[in-house]
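Re: export button greyed out
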Amino acid sequence: MEQQSPAFFRHGPSPAVRLTFFILLSLMFLVSDAHYNYLETLRKALGTLTYPLQRLANAPAAFFDYAGNLLSMQSRLLGENQQLQKRFLLDQSLLLRLKAQEQENIRLRLLLDAKSRQDKPAVMAEIMYTARDPFSRKIIIDKGSQQNIETGSAVIDGIGLIGQVRRTYAYASEISLITDKDQPTPIQVERNGLRAILFGFGSESLLDLRYMSPNADIKVGDVLLTSGIDGTYAAGLPVAVVAKVDRNPAYAFAKIVCTPSAGVDRHKEVLVLAPARTLPAENDLDKKEK
Amino acid sequence: MPGNPIRAQEILLPVRPGFIVFTLIAGYFLNLLPLDSLLGRALPDFVALLLIYWSIYKPANVGIGSGWLLGVLMDVADTTLFGQHAAAYSIMCFLAISYGRRIRMFEPGQQMLHVMALVLSSQITMVLIGLAAKGTFPGWLYFSASITTGLLWPVFSHLLKLPQRTKPDHPTRI
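Workaround output, generated via the alternate export path:
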Protein backbone atom coordinates (compact mmCIF):
# COMPACT_ATOMS: atom_id res chain seq x y z
CA MET A 1 0.00 0.00 0.00
CA GLU A 2 1.37 3.38 -0.98
CA GLN A 3 -0.09 5.52 1.73
CA GLN A 4 -2.51 4.81 4.52
CA SER A 5 -5.34 7.32 4.83
CA PRO A 6 -4.82 9.07 8.16
CA ALA A 7 -6.98 7.74 10.96
CA PHE A 8 -9.20 10.43 12.39
CA PHE A 9 -10.04 8.57 15.55
CA ARG A 10 -7.51 6.30 17.16
CA HIS A 11 -9.23 3.30 18.72
CA GLY A 12 -6.42 1.25 20.18
CA PRO A 13 -3.68 -0.33 18.06
CA SER A 14 -3.49 0.42 14.34
CA PRO A 15 -5.03 -2.04 11.86
CA ALA A 16 -1.64 -3.31 10.78
CA VAL A 17 -0.71 -4.24 14.34
CA ARG A 18 -4.05 -5.91 14.89
CA LEU A 19 -3.69 -7.84 11.64
CA THR A 20 -0.25 -9.10 12.61
CA PHE A 21 -1.55 -10.24 15.98
CA PHE A 22 -4.50 -12.11 14.48
CA ILE A 23 -2.40 -13.65 11.72
CA LEU A 24 0.04 -14.96 14.31
CA LEU A 25 -2.87 -16.29 16.36
CA SER A 26 -4.31 -18.00 13.27
CA LEU A 27 -0.94 -19.55 12.46
CA MET A 28 -0.71 -20.88 16.00
CA PHE A 29 -4.17 -22.39 15.66
CA LEU A 30 -3.32 -23.85 12.26
CA VAL A 31 -0.15 -25.52 13.47
CA SER A 32 -1.81 -26.94 16.57
CA ASP A 33 -4.78 -28.16 14.60
CA ALA A 34 -2.85 -29.69 11.73
CA HIS A 35 -0.23 -31.50 13.75
CA TYR A 36 -1.52 -31.81 17.27
CA ASN A 37 -5.04 -32.17 18.53
CA TYR A 38 -5.00 -29.56 21.25
CA LEU A 39 -7.94 -27.67 19.91
CA GLU A 40 -10.33 -30.59 19.61
CA THR A 41 -12.23 -29.68 22.78
CA LEU A 42 -12.65 -26.11 21.56
CA ARG A 43 -13.89 -27.32 18.20
CA LYS A 44 -16.34 -29.74 19.81
CA ALA A 45 -17.62 -27.04 22.14
CA LEU A 46 -18.17 -24.61 19.27
CA GLY A 47 -19.67 -27.38 17.17
CA THR A 48 -22.20 -28.24 19.87
CA LEU A 49 -22.99 -24.53 20.28
CA THR A 50 -23.71 -24.05 16.59
CA TYR A 51 -25.52 -27.38 16.26
CA PRO A 52 -29.07 -25.92 16.61
CA LEU A 53 -28.31 -23.39 13.90
CA GLN A 54 -26.97 -26.15 11.65
CA ARG A 55 -30.05 -28.31 12.14
CA LEU A 56 -32.21 -25.28 11.39
CA ALA A 57 -30.26 -24.55 8.21
CA ASN A 58 -30.63 -28.17 7.16
CA ALA A 59 -34.37 -28.18 7.83
CA PRO A 60 -35.59 -26.85 4.45
CA ALA A 61 -33.63 -29.47 2.49
CA ALA A 62 -34.84 -32.22 4.83
CA PHE A 63 -38.39 -30.92 4.49
CA PHE A 64 -38.24 -31.02 0.70
CA ASP A 65 -36.93 -34.58 0.86
CA TYR A 66 -39.77 -35.53 3.16
CA ALA A 67 -42.38 -33.81 0.99
CA GLY A 68 -40.93 -35.52 -2.07
CA ASN A 69 -41.25 -38.86 -0.34
CA LEU A 70 -44.86 -38.16 0.60
CA LEU A 71 -45.70 -37.40 -2.99
CA SER A 72 -44.11 -40.53 -4.53
CA MET A 73 -46.32 -42.54 -6.79
CA GLN A 74 -47.89 -45.51 -5.14
CA SER A 75 -47.00 -47.78 -8.08
CA ARG A 76 -43.31 -46.95 -7.66
CA LEU A 77 -43.51 -47.69 -3.96
CA LEU A 78 -45.23 -51.04 -4.56
CA GLY A 79 -42.54 -52.03 -7.06
CA GLU A 80 -39.78 -51.01 -4.66
CA ASN A 81 -41.48 -52.95 -1.87
CA GLN A 82 -41.58 -56.13 -3.93
CA GLN A 83 -37.91 -55.82 -4.87
CA LEU A 84 -36.92 -55.27 -1.25
CA GLN A 85 -38.94 -58.32 -0.12
CA LYS A 86 -37.10 -60.50 -2.64
CA ARG A 87 -33.74 -59.14 -1.53
CA PHE A 88 -34.70 -59.64 2.08
CA LEU A 89 -35.40 -63.32 1.48
CA LEU A 90 -32.04 -63.81 -0.23
CA ASP A 91 -30.24 -61.94 2.52
CA GLN A 92 -32.02 -63.98 5.20
CA SER A 93 -30.66 -67.24 3.79
CA LEU A 94 -27.16 -65.74 3.74
CA LEU A 95 -27.60 -64.53 7.33
CA LEU A 96 -28.61 -67.97 8.57
CA ARG A 97 -25.50 -69.46 7.01
CA LEU A 98 -23.43 -66.67 8.55
CA LYS A 99 -24.85 -67.34 12.01
CA ALA A 100 -23.94 -71.03 11.71
CA GLN A 101 -20.42 -70.12 10.60
CA GLU A 102 -20.06 -67.66 13.46
CA GLN A 103 -20.88 -70.38 15.96
CA GLU A 104 -18.35 -72.71 14.33
CA ASN A 105 -15.79 -69.91 14.42
CA ILE A 106 -16.31 -69.32 18.15
CA ARG A 107 -15.90 -73.06 18.87
CA LEU A 108 -12.74 -73.28 16.77
CA ARG A 109 -11.28 -70.23 18.44
CA LEU A 110 -11.94 -71.68 21.86
CA LEU A 111 -10.18 -74.86 20.78
CA LEU A 112 -7.18 -72.88 19.59
CA ASP A 113 -7.27 -70.80 22.78
CA ALA A 114 -7.41 -67.69 20.62
CA LYS A 115 -8.89 -64.47 21.94
CA SER A 116 -12.58 -64.14 21.21
CA ARG A 117 -13.91 -61.25 19.15
CA GLN A 118 -16.45 -58.97 20.68
CA ASP A 119 -19.40 -57.98 18.55
CA LYS A 120 -20.59 -54.49 19.09
CA PRO A 121 -23.87 -53.50 17.44
CA ALA A 122 -23.78 -51.38 14.34
CA VAL A 123 -25.43 -47.98 14.43
CA MET A 124 -27.63 -46.80 11.58
CA ALA A 125 -27.17 -43.16 10.64
CA GLU A 126 -28.22 -40.71 7.96
CA ILE A 127 -25.95 -38.39 6.03
CA MET A 128 -26.97 -34.84 6.88
CA TYR A 129 -24.82 -33.00 4.37
CA THR A 130 -21.42 -32.89 2.73
CA ALA A 131 -18.92 -30.73 4.57
CA ARG A 132 -18.25 -27.50 2.69
CA ASP A 133 -14.49 -27.75 3.00
CA PRO A 134 -13.14 -27.73 -0.58
CA PHE A 135 -9.84 -29.22 0.58
CA SER A 136 -11.16 -32.49 1.93
CA ARG A 137 -13.95 -34.96 1.33
CA LYS A 138 -16.02 -35.31 4.44
CA ILE A 139 -19.66 -35.95 5.23
CA ILE A 140 -21.61 -35.23 8.39
CA ILE A 141 -23.96 -37.80 9.86
CA ASP A 142 -26.67 -37.24 12.42
CA LYS A 143 -25.33 -39.48 15.21
CA GLY A 144 -22.61 -38.44 17.62
CA SER A 145 -20.91 -39.36 20.88
CA GLN A 146 -24.26 -39.30 22.67
CA GLN A 147 -25.31 -42.22 20.46
CA ASN A 148 -22.09 -44.13 21.21
CA ILE A 149 -20.25 -43.40 17.98
CA GLU A 150 -16.49 -43.77 18.47
CA THR A 151 -13.82 -42.00 16.44
CA GLY A 152 -12.06 -44.39 14.12
CA SER A 153 -15.17 -46.46 13.40
CA ALA A 154 -15.68 -47.74 9.88
CA VAL A 155 -18.70 -46.47 7.99
CA ILE A 156 -20.33 -48.64 5.33
CA ASP A 157 -23.32 -48.45 3.05
CA GLY A 158 -25.10 -51.46 1.55
CA ILE A 159 -22.24 -52.19 -0.84
CA GLY A 160 -18.95 -51.45 0.88
CA LEU A 161 -16.73 -49.18 2.91
CA ILE A 162 -17.25 -45.46 2.46
CA GLY A 163 -15.12 -43.88 5.16
CA GLN A 164 -13.99 -43.52 8.74
CA VAL A 165 -15.32 -41.44 11.62
CA ARG A 166 -12.82 -38.63 12.20
CA ARG A 167 -14.43 -36.47 14.80
CA THR A 168 -17.51 -36.85 16.99
CA TYR A 169 -19.55 -34.01 18.34
CA ALA A 170 -22.39 -34.53 20.79
CA TYR A 171 -25.10 -35.15 18.20
CA ALA A 172 -23.22 -35.31 14.90
CA SER A 173 -20.06 -36.89 13.50
CA GLU A 174 -17.62 -36.08 10.76
CA ILE A 175 -16.75 -38.92 8.40
CA SER A 176 -13.64 -38.75 6.27
CA LEU A 177 -14.42 -40.53 3.01
CA ILE A 178 -11.96 -43.09 1.65
CA THR A 179 -11.40 -40.71 -1.27
CA ASP A 180 -10.15 -37.96 1.07
CA LYS A 181 -6.54 -37.02 0.34
CA ASP A 182 -4.10 -39.33 2.11
CA GLN A 183 -6.85 -41.22 3.94
CA PRO A 184 -5.35 -44.71 4.30
CA THR A 185 -7.35 -47.94 4.12
CA PRO A 186 -5.54 -51.26 4.65
CA ILE A 187 -6.74 -53.68 1.98
CA GLN A 188 -6.24 -57.17 0.74
CA VAL A 189 -6.67 -58.29 -2.86
CA GLU A 190 -9.49 -60.87 -2.95
CA ARG A 191 -7.90 -62.99 -5.65
CA ASN A 192 -4.49 -63.69 -4.16
CA GLY A 193 -4.48 -62.23 -0.64
CA LEU A 194 -1.88 -59.58 -1.41
CA ARG A 195 -1.92 -56.87 1.28
CA ALA A 196 -1.47 -53.19 0.61
CA ILE A 197 -2.67 -49.76 1.64
CA LEU A 198 -5.12 -47.70 -0.38
CA PHE A 199 -5.01 -43.90 -0.29
CA GLY A 200 -7.48 -41.31 -1.48
CA PHE A 201 -6.58 -38.84 -4.19
CA GLY A 202 -8.57 -35.98 -2.71
CA SER A 203 -9.68 -34.38 -5.95
CA GLU A 204 -11.59 -36.99 -7.98
CA SER A 205 -13.55 -39.95 -6.66
CA LEU A 206 -10.60 -42.27 -7.21
CA LEU A 207 -8.25 -44.20 -4.97
CA ASP A 208 -4.50 -44.69 -5.21
CA LEU A 209 -2.83 -48.00 -4.39
CA ARG A 210 0.63 -46.90 -3.37
CA TYR A 211 3.95 -48.59 -2.71
CA MET A 212 3.34 -51.62 -4.95
CA SER A 213 6.38 -52.75 -6.92
CA PRO A 214 6.03 -52.71 -10.73
CA ASN A 215 5.96 -56.52 -10.89
CA ALA A 216 3.30 -56.99 -8.20
CA ASP A 217 0.60 -59.52 -8.97
CA ILE A 218 -2.27 -57.15 -9.51
CA LYS A 219 -4.42 -56.53 -12.54
CA VAL A 220 -7.38 -54.48 -13.73
CA GLY A 221 -10.62 -55.77 -12.26
CA ASP A 222 -9.15 -57.06 -9.01
CA VAL A 223 -11.50 -56.61 -6.07
CA LEU A 224 -9.99 -55.06 -2.95
CA LEU A 225 -11.38 -55.90 0.51
CA THR A 226 -10.38 -54.59 3.94
CA SER A 227 -7.68 -56.77 5.47
CA GLY A 228 -8.69 -56.13 9.08
CA ILE A 229 -5.08 -56.09 10.22
CA ASP A 230 -5.00 -52.76 11.98
CA GLY A 231 -8.02 -53.57 14.11
CA THR A 232 -9.89 -50.52 12.94
CA TYR A 233 -11.89 -52.01 10.08
CA ALA A 234 -13.50 -55.42 10.19
CA ALA A 235 -11.99 -57.75 7.60
CA GLY A 236 -13.69 -58.51 4.32
CA LEU A 237 -15.54 -55.26 3.58
CA PRO A 238 -15.47 -54.42 -0.15
CA VAL A 239 -13.55 -51.23 -0.75
CA ALA A 240 -12.59 -50.77 -4.40
CA VAL A 241 -11.96 -52.29 -7.80
CA VAL A 242 -8.68 -51.76 -9.68
CA ALA A 243 -9.29 -49.61 -12.73
CA LYS A 244 -5.87 -48.89 -14.15
CA VAL A 245 -2.39 -50.31 -13.64
CA ASP A 246 0.60 -48.40 -14.95
CA ARG A 247 3.83 -50.37 -14.64
CA ASN A 248 6.80 -48.28 -15.54
CA PRO A 249 10.12 -49.91 -14.50
CA ALA A 250 11.72 -46.47 -14.44
CA TYR A 251 9.75 -45.65 -11.27
CA ALA A 252 10.14 -47.45 -7.98
CA PHE A 253 6.42 -48.13 -7.64
CA ALA A 254 3.56 -48.94 -9.97
CA LYS A 255 0.81 -46.38 -10.42
CA ILE A 256 -2.47 -48.13 -9.68
CA VAL A 257 -5.79 -46.30 -9.75
CA CYS A 258 -8.95 -47.81 -8.29
CA THR A 259 -12.62 -46.89 -8.23
CA PRO A 260 -14.55 -47.25 -4.97
CA SER A 261 -17.15 -50.05 -4.83
CA ALA A 262 -19.56 -48.30 -2.53
CA GLY A 263 -21.60 -45.29 -3.55
CA VAL A 264 -19.19 -43.08 -1.65
CA ASP A 265 -21.18 -39.88 -1.73
CA ARG A 266 -24.44 -41.08 -3.16
CA HIS A 267 -26.49 -42.91 -0.56
CA LYS A 268 -28.28 -41.34 2.36
CA GLU A 269 -28.36 -44.17 4.92
CA VAL A 270 -25.11 -45.51 6.32
CA LEU A 271 -24.06 -47.97 8.98
CA VAL A 272 -21.36 -47.19 11.54
CA LEU A 273 -19.42 -50.25 12.71
CA ALA A 274 -17.56 -50.08 16.00
CA PRO A 275 -13.78 -50.57 15.70
CA ALA A 276 -13.06 -54.32 15.49
CA ARG A 277 -10.43 -54.43 18.20
CA THR A 278 -9.75 -57.87 19.67
CA LEU A 279 -9.46 -57.16 23.37
CA PRO A 280 -8.57 -59.92 25.81
CA ALA A 281 -11.41 -60.66 28.22
CA GLU A 282 -10.54 -60.47 31.93
CA ASN A 283 -10.94 -64.24 32.57
CA ASP A 284 -8.74 -65.12 29.56
CA LEU A 285 -5.68 -63.49 31.15
CA ASP A 286 -6.36 -65.18 34.49
CA LYS A 287 -6.58 -68.57 32.78
CA LYS A 288 -3.21 -68.03 31.13
CA GLU A 289 -1.55 -67.21 34.42
CA LYS A 290 -2.83 -70.44 35.96
CA MET B 1 -17.78 10.20 -17.52
CA PRO B 2 -19.14 13.50 -18.85
CA GLY B 3 -21.99 14.99 -16.92
CA ASN B 4 -21.65 12.60 -13.96
CA PRO B 5 -21.96 14.69 -10.79
CA ILE B 6 -20.01 13.69 -7.71
CA ARG B 7 -22.31 11.33 -5.83
CA ALA B 8 -23.43 12.96 -2.62
CA GLN B 9 -22.91 10.70 0.37
CA GLU B 10 -26.06 9.94 2.29
CA ILE B 11 -26.34 10.86 5.91
CA LEU B 12 -27.58 7.75 7.63
CA LEU B 13 -29.12 7.22 11.04
CA PRO B 14 -26.84 5.54 13.55
CA VAL B 15 -26.83 1.77 13.63
CA ARG B 16 -27.74 -0.20 16.71
CA PRO B 17 -25.00 -2.70 17.65
CA GLY B 18 -27.71 -5.33 18.05
CA PHE B 19 -28.52 -4.98 14.38
CA ILE B 20 -24.89 -5.61 13.43
CA VAL B 21 -24.80 -8.77 15.53
CA PHE B 22 -28.13 -9.89 14.06
CA THR B 23 -26.91 -9.47 10.50
CA LEU B 24 -23.70 -11.37 11.22
CA ILE B 25 -25.61 -14.27 12.77
CA ALA B 26 -28.01 -14.21 9.80
CA GLY B 27 -25.01 -14.30 7.46
CA TYR B 28 -23.57 -17.27 9.33
CA PHE B 29 -26.93 -19.02 9.08
CA LEU B 30 -27.05 -18.37 5.32
CA ASN B 31 -23.57 -19.84 5.01
CA LEU B 32 -24.78 -23.00 6.73
CA LEU B 33 -27.58 -23.59 4.21
CA PRO B 34 -26.80 -26.67 2.10
CA LEU B 35 -27.03 -24.96 -1.27
CA ASP B 36 -23.95 -26.60 -2.74
CA SER B 37 -26.09 -29.08 -4.66
CA LEU B 38 -27.60 -26.14 -6.55
CA LEU B 39 -24.63 -23.85 -6.96
CA GLY B 40 -21.66 -26.15 -6.54
CA ARG B 41 -18.40 -24.33 -6.05
CA ALA B 42 -19.87 -20.90 -6.85
CA LEU B 43 -21.61 -20.71 -3.48
CA PRO B 44 -21.44 -17.11 -2.22
CA ASP B 45 -19.84 -16.40 1.12
CA PHE B 46 -22.43 -14.37 3.01
CA VAL B 47 -20.29 -13.92 6.09
CA ALA B 48 -17.51 -12.40 3.99
CA LEU B 49 -20.01 -10.08 2.33
CA LEU B 50 -21.34 -8.85 5.67
CA LEU B 51 -17.87 -8.48 7.16
CA ILE B 52 -16.83 -6.34 4.21
CA TYR B 53 -19.96 -4.22 4.50
CA TRP B 54 -19.51 -3.54 8.19
CA SER B 55 -15.73 -3.08 7.92
CA ILE B 56 -16.32 -0.39 5.32
CA TYR B 57 -19.16 1.43 7.04
CA LYS B 58 -18.53 0.74 10.72
CA PRO B 59 -14.84 -0.07 11.13
CA ALA B 60 -14.97 0.96 14.78
CA ASN B 61 -17.50 -1.77 15.61
CA VAL B 62 -16.61 -4.55 13.20
CA GLY B 63 -12.94 -4.96 12.42
CA ILE B 64 -10.22 -7.52 12.19
CA GLY B 65 -11.11 -9.05 15.55
CA SER B 66 -14.70 -9.74 14.53
CA GLY B 67 -13.44 -11.11 11.22
CA TRP B 68 -11.15 -13.47 13.08
CA LEU B 69 -13.92 -14.62 15.41
CA LEU B 70 -16.34 -15.30 12.59
CA GLY B 71 -13.53 -17.04 10.75
CA VAL B 72 -13.12 -19.45 13.65
CA LEU B 73 -16.88 -20.12 13.65
CA MET B 74 -16.77 -20.74 9.91
CA ASP B 75 -13.88 -23.15 10.41
CA VAL B 76 -16.05 -25.14 12.78
CA ALA B 77 -19.00 -25.06 10.36
CA ASP B 78 -16.98 -26.02 7.29
CA THR B 79 -14.71 -28.50 9.13
CA THR B 80 -11.64 -26.76 7.72
CA LEU B 81 -8.48 -26.39 9.78
CA PHE B 82 -8.74 -24.00 12.69
CA GLY B 83 -7.34 -20.71 11.50
CA GLN B 84 -7.91 -21.15 7.77
CA HIS B 85 -11.03 -19.03 7.52
CA ALA B 86 -9.84 -16.95 10.48
CA ALA B 87 -6.66 -15.80 8.75
CA ALA B 88 -8.49 -15.29 5.45
CA TYR B 89 -11.18 -13.10 7.02
CA SER B 90 -8.63 -11.15 9.09
CA ILE B 91 -6.70 -10.20 5.97
CA MET B 92 -9.94 -9.39 4.13
CA CYS B 93 -11.19 -7.13 6.94
CA PHE B 94 -7.81 -5.43 7.13
CA LEU B 95 -7.96 -4.59 3.42
CA ALA B 96 -11.59 -3.51 3.74
CA ILE B 97 -10.74 -1.16 6.60
CA SER B 98 -7.68 0.24 4.86
CA TYR B 99 -9.51 0.98 1.63
CA GLY B 100 -12.92 1.54 3.21
CA ARG B 101 -13.01 5.29 2.87
CA ARG B 102 -12.11 5.09 -0.79
CA ILE B 103 -14.68 2.39 -1.48
CA ARG B 104 -17.44 4.43 0.13
CA MET B 105 -17.10 7.06 -2.54
CA PHE B 106 -17.98 4.75 -5.42
CA GLU B 107 -21.31 3.77 -6.91
CA PRO B 108 -22.71 0.42 -5.75
CA GLY B 109 -21.90 -1.04 -9.14
CA GLN B 110 -18.26 -0.06 -8.86
CA GLN B 111 -18.15 -1.05 -5.21
CA MET B 112 -19.13 -4.50 -6.46
CA LEU B 113 -15.78 -4.86 -8.20
CA HIS B 114 -13.95 -3.84 -5.04
CA VAL B 115 -15.94 -6.41 -3.08
CA MET B 116 -15.09 -9.13 -5.60
CA ALA B 117 -11.42 -8.30 -5.18
CA LEU B 118 -11.70 -8.41 -1.38
CA VAL B 119 -13.46 -11.78 -1.36
CA LEU B 120 -10.87 -13.02 -3.85
CA SER B 121 -8.15 -12.04 -1.39
CA SER B 122 -9.80 -14.18 1.28
CA GLN B 123 -10.09 -17.10 -1.15
CA ILE B 124 -6.43 -16.82 -2.17
CA THR B 125 -5.44 -16.95 1.50
CA MET B 126 -7.64 -20.02 2.01
CA VAL B 127 -6.09 -21.79 -0.98
CA LEU B 128 -2.55 -20.95 0.12
CA ILE B 129 -3.16 -22.28 3.61
CA GLY B 130 -4.87 -25.37 2.19
CA LEU B 131 -1.93 -26.03 -0.13
CA ALA B 132 0.59 -25.58 2.66
CA ALA B 133 -1.24 -27.72 5.18
CA LYS B 134 -2.80 -30.46 3.06
CA GLY B 135 -1.39 -30.18 -0.43
CA THR B 136 -4.78 -30.13 -2.16
CA PHE B 137 -5.87 -27.52 -4.66
CA PRO B 138 -9.67 -27.11 -4.90
CA GLY B 139 -9.68 -26.30 -8.60
CA TRP B 140 -9.94 -22.95 -10.39
CA LEU B 141 -13.73 -23.02 -10.19
CA TYR B 142 -13.39 -22.39 -6.46
CA PHE B 143 -12.61 -18.73 -7.20
CA SER B 144 -15.95 -18.23 -8.93
CA ALA B 145 -17.43 -17.78 -5.46
CA SER B 146 -15.88 -14.30 -5.26
CA ILE B 147 -17.79 -13.31 -8.39
CA THR B 148 -21.13 -14.56 -7.08
CA THR B 149 -20.53 -12.95 -3.69
CA GLY B 150 -19.66 -9.65 -5.35
CA LEU B 151 -22.81 -9.81 -7.47
CA LEU B 152 -24.87 -9.92 -4.28
CA TRP B 153 -23.25 -6.72 -2.99
CA PRO B 154 -25.64 -4.11 -4.46
CA VAL B 155 -28.71 -5.96 -3.11
CA PHE B 156 -27.24 -6.53 0.32
CA SER B 157 -25.80 -3.06 0.72
CA HIS B 158 -29.20 -1.59 -0.13
CA LEU B 159 -31.02 -3.92 2.28
CA LEU B 160 -28.59 -3.25 5.10
CA LYS B 161 -28.96 0.50 4.75
CA LEU B 162 -32.77 0.37 4.99
CA PRO B 163 -32.99 0.58 8.78
CA GLN B 164 -30.74 3.60 8.71
CA ARG B 165 -32.59 5.60 6.14
CA THR B 166 -34.72 8.41 7.53
CA LYS B 167 -38.40 7.79 7.05
CA PRO B 168 -40.07 10.23 4.67
CA ASP B 169 -42.16 12.82 6.47
CA HIS B 170 -45.86 12.20 6.21
CA PRO B 171 -47.60 15.14 4.60
CA THR B 172 -49.91 16.81 7.03
CA ARG B 173 -53.54 16.64 6.11
CA ILE B 174 -55.63 19.66 6.41
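The two ends of chain B are 46 Å apart (CA to CA). The button fix ships in the next patch.
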